Amino acid sequence: MRHMTCAMTALLLAACGGGGGHPGSTGNSPGLGSATANLDAYVGTWASACASRAIDTAVIARAAGTNDALTIAVTTRYYANTECTGAVIATQTWSADATATWVGTVASAIVPGPGMAPVTASVDKVAAQLPQRTVTLTGTFVSHQTIAGQPNWCIDYTDGSVCVPDRIYAAEPAPFDGLAVLDNVLYELKSNGVNYDAVGRFTKQ
């Protein structure tokens, strides 16, 4: 039996800390909510590549009552096959959405993936936050089990179970502090103090 690390793939699930430097040279960046924050580029439905039998779908929208923030709702669908083909056997949802508030825009190099050459991009720096939340899994292959005294949602594959603790997850910084869109691909970015590394990659649907 395995336990999932709670991660959106990078967006919603992981308990990684925020912080890091803010590389790049800041251009003219007026106050929050100015036209320099092209948040419309991120609005829509985005999907990750298949990983560990799962695909994350992120629905990004403008946050109500503000011009400088986004909400990010993530649904994870699990498949019986490792290639994410065939029927969906489990669906994971969260009780509250992540938020990302724009704090500035920089021109910076980003590293799209391991071993890949850096490319130049316009990066929107964000303060991203995961709220206090709970997780729910549904589906014909989902069971609710108590493991070491802790309730868990479990996906029962033919070769074993993968489980997620059924508990209240505390509010915490999201594991990214930048966003960029290049060639219809959304990158969640994390500052490394020099430039940005991609920690999530999603294709527009």
Features of the shown structure:
205 residues, 12-stranded mixed beta sheet
Describe this protein's structure:
- The chain has 205 residues and is mainly beta.
- The protein has one domain (2-15, 38-204).
- Helix content is 0%, strand content 53%.
- The chain contains no helices and 16 strands.
- Strands 2, 3, 4, 5, 6, 7, 8, 9, 13, 14, 15 and 16 form a twelve-stranded mixed beta sheet that branches. A four-stranded mixed beta sheet has the order 1-12-11-10, with no helix packed on it.
* Overall average pLDDT: 85
End-to-end separation in angstroms reads 33 Å
Q: Give the ordered list of helices and strands.
A: EEEEEEEEEEEEEEEE
Number of domains: 1
Shape: globular
Return Rg in Å.
Answer: 18 Å
The total strand number stands at: 16
Q: Provide the β-strand percentage band.
A: over 45%
| Helical coverage, percent range | under 10%
Count the helices. How many? Answer: 0
What is the structural class? Answer: mainly beta
**Main sheet specs:** 12 strands, mixed
Q: Detail the poorly predicted runs.
A: 4-10, 12-36
Blueprint (SSEs and pairs):
Elements: E1 2-3, E2 25-26, E3 44-47, E4 54-62, E5 69-79, E6 88-94, E7 98-111, E8 119-130, E9 135-138, E10 142-147, E11 150-157, E12 160-165, E13 172-173, E14 178-182, E15 185-191, E16 196-204
Parallel strand pairs: 1-12, 7-16
Antiparallel strand pairs: 2-7, 3-4, 3-16, 4-5, 5-6, 5-7, 6-9, 7-8, 8-13, 8-14, 10-11, 11-12, 14-15, 15-16
